[in-house]
Sequence to fold (281 residues):
Amino acid sequence: MQQVDLYKSEADAAYQGVAGAYSEEAAQALLGRNVRLMPCATLQQAFDAVADGRVRHAVVPVESALSGTVPAVYELLLAHDLVVSGETVTNIEHVLVGSRGTEPAAVRRVMSHPMALEQCGDFFRSHRTIEAVSVFDTAGAVRMVVEGGDKTTAAIASRRAALLYGADIIAERIQDHQDNWIRFLLLSNRPHATPVDNPQKALLAFGLPHEPGALLRALQPIARAGMSITKIEGRPIAGTPFEYRFIVEVVAPLGHAIADDAFEAVRHATTWLKILGAFRL
Fold:
């Protein structure tokens, strides 16, 4: 991946990957086609770029409908003082990509992001002579394949990435399931997080006492307010074995908004509460 000066940027938003990445596509969906983007090698770099003010926003994948939560995203969100200010969902269609003239029968190794490799497990089970190789990004894998010119190496990525780097598509729709959705979050630094009137969705993080019924007591106020929980996840606390903090995503009833004081009762039922963001859908 081409190195960029992460301390000097005229970009509006950061994302993990290179041009042609699914995260770049999501960023353009959330912020417009003319948004100036900063590619980053890691999610950590994307979060840091927002936190220290080099960009106003970051767009990061948080959940796959097939693979579940993206590793480390919630930990990075809790470690940075950022605001979740929006989301988008993208249907991911993976293709197998090779340099010009690559024959499918010649492929012996396939590179891609670990999550993309996992989403194409059936392909590897039916091609047991092909080695799956994890790299930092789907589009980055295409660029490496094209630049390397090795016709025994291919990549799993998007059709858009293949076209962008002048590669051949040698197999299509190789993901295990066609409904392969990934949800992306829009993160903003606090000075550029515009207050939202009548938010419809919110993300919370909280801790609980070790008492019977503690989680139930924390969630009951959400139910009494008529809100639905769309996701709940316990995340381990580093350095504190077998203790967890919880991430909860809630949505207001159809046609309603989340009230300003909607989570005060939740705060009283937890050891700590942080509202990670609230936004309109």
Remarks:
- The chain has nine helices and 15 strands.
- The two ends are 34 Å apart (CA to CA).
- Residues 201-279 form a domain with the Alpha-Beta Plaits fold (CATH 3.30.70.260).
